[in-house]
Amino acid sequence: MSRTVLVSGASIAGPALAYWLRRHGMTPTVVERAPEPRPGGQTVDLRGAGRTVIERMGLEPAARDRVTHEEGLRFVDARGRVRASFAADALGGDGFVTELELLRGELADLLYQHTRHDAEYVFGDEITALTDTGEGVDVRFRNGSSRNFDLVVLADGLRSRTRDLVFADIARTRSFGLCTAYFTIPRSTSDGRWARWYNAPGRRVVLLRPDNQGTTRATLSFLTPRPGLERLNRPAQQEFLCRHYSGAGWETPRVLDEMVRAPDFYFESVGQMRLERWSRGRIAVVGDAAYCASPLSGMGTSLALVGAYVLAGELGRQHDHDDAFHAYETLMRPYVEQAQKVSWLAPRLAAPKTRAGIRLLTAAARVATRPGAGRIAARFTNPPSDAIDLPAYPPAGQGGARGACGGSSTPG
Ligand SMILES: Cc1cc2nc3c(=O)[nH]c(=O)nc-3n(C[C@H](O)[C@H](O)[C@H](O)COP(=O)(O)OP(=O)(O)OC[C@H]3O[C@@H](n4cnc5c(N)ncnc54)[C@H](O)[C@@H]3O)c2cc1C
């Protein structure tokens, strides 16, 4: 009998976990609230240990086939003039734009396609109640059904409601007062192969990035003291954005115009998740649901991939799930804490309030592009993506995985 594990969430952490659970002889079921894999999002980068996990999954060639081929990042002014440029190979290929950038939706799809035949996927449903009986977990689903699993892992993102069923008393969200909207718009002749970053006064940023699908990924980021925007419905959020970005200049009118028609509008209040512990009994958390570091860290995808790898690896090699959860947390905590060291100042420096502040920012960016200054700039732009020694976990059948009670293993 192999351990049965229910995973909630099918974005990055969930399917990656399903893959490694299977490799270690367990039986994963993934439940995702959305009716199908969600396609949206900007580019995410694969670097450091996150990239190593993708390599160990044998997915690096497929990931390479899907890179966005962005040539770098340019700071532009209201007239579209380039104020500073960071080529993709600047800072050793590990700066603002890395060598292995792909769309979040493409990475999620890659992971889903790679696991869909080895894991049971249930779309359009979600967990509504969890009871840890000591022998297993009784799970109730929105569709009215109930099932029992040996273990449950929540991989359902920063705003996870299922996490609140188990960890509400020890979960703390750190907010940056920063909101972001992501969406896809038609490509225009001005878009090219470079990402373009535009600052408007009033702490407003517009970022346009080319993708590999003939369209452009737009991001609107702004600092606001107003709480709760992420809870508004989509038309209300878009109405707010139209008002807030009115008069921002550059290509903003085109972006706002297309936003209303965007098929994949996604709005979030940028935050981090601080959870005192990542498991209780037979229920654990992974990825953003456990330790979201925010897009400001550039580490969300790496943490999700590495967390999934370590958690499944420890479950594979430890007889007792308590020991496995403990080892997972011991290994991952320092890596997560480093990634979460994002200064409250970071979004304020990147989105100045005044024109003078914007001039200062672009002047600093220009200095950072100079030879020699690159190493200093890298200290600020390069997150500690390698700061973990990834154990090698033998797959099931090679002395690694155990069954439900630590018994015989099933080859993955
Ligand atoms: C649509 C989308 C777009 C994104 N765009 C960007 C981006 O542009 N830039 C960036 O840095 N990060 C983005 N992210 C976040 C990024 O994917 C994560 O920071 C990181 O990759 C870690 O992934 P995760 O799998 O832990 O969490 P997430 O990627 O947040 O995935 C959580 C998954 O759980 C599902 N879910 C939520 N609640 C439930 C529930 N109750 N039951 C079952 N399933 C549930 C969600 O639909 C989602 O598929 C985006 C996430 C999503 C879902």
Automatic annotation (TrEMBL):
Keywords: Monooxygenase, Oxidoreductase. Residues 397-406 have a biased composition (Gly residues). Coiled coil: none annotated. Gene3D superfamilies: D-Amino Acid Oxidase, subunit A, domain 2, FAD/NAD(P)-binding domain. It comes from the Bacteria. Residues 4-338 form the FAD-binding domain. Pfam families: FAD_binding_3. One of its GO terms (molecular function) is monooxygenase activity. Residues 387-412 are annotated as: Disordered. This is FAD-dependent monooxygenase. It comes from Amycolatopsis minnesotensis.
